[in-house]
Design a protein that fits this description.
This protein is an all-alpha fold and 96 residues long. It has one helix and no strands.
């Protein structure tokens, strides 16, 4: 009987069934990454703008609160002076 050469089930130079990370086919992510980077940059710019507006509004609120306190104090002083005048007028009226 002639002997058949042994047949291999896999070729000698078989390809692995998993790719090395550098050999794997890469989907085109560049446009998506650029779009994402642009959105993140835009969001950071909006964040900086909102933070600046917030700081300015807090400053304005502090200034308005200080002005209000000053006006309330002046109002009380004027009220006290008017009440004192009314009291003096009543005293003058009763003395006459």
């Amino acid at each position: 009987m002639p002997q058949c050469p042994a047949r291999r089930l896999t070729p000698t130079r078989a390809r692995p069934y998993s790719f090395a990370m550098t050999d794997a086919p890469q989907p085109p992510l560049d446009p998506e990454l650029r779009t994402l980077e642009l959105r993140v940059t835009q969001l950071l710019a909006v964040l900086a703008q909102v933070q600046e507006e917030n700081r300015a509004l807090r400053q304005r609120q502090d200034a308005i609160s200080a002005e209000r306190a000053s006006l309330l104090q002046k109002n009380e002083q004027v009220r006290a002076r008017v009440e004192a005048m009314i009291g003096r007028l009543r005293t003058l009226e009763q003395g006459a």
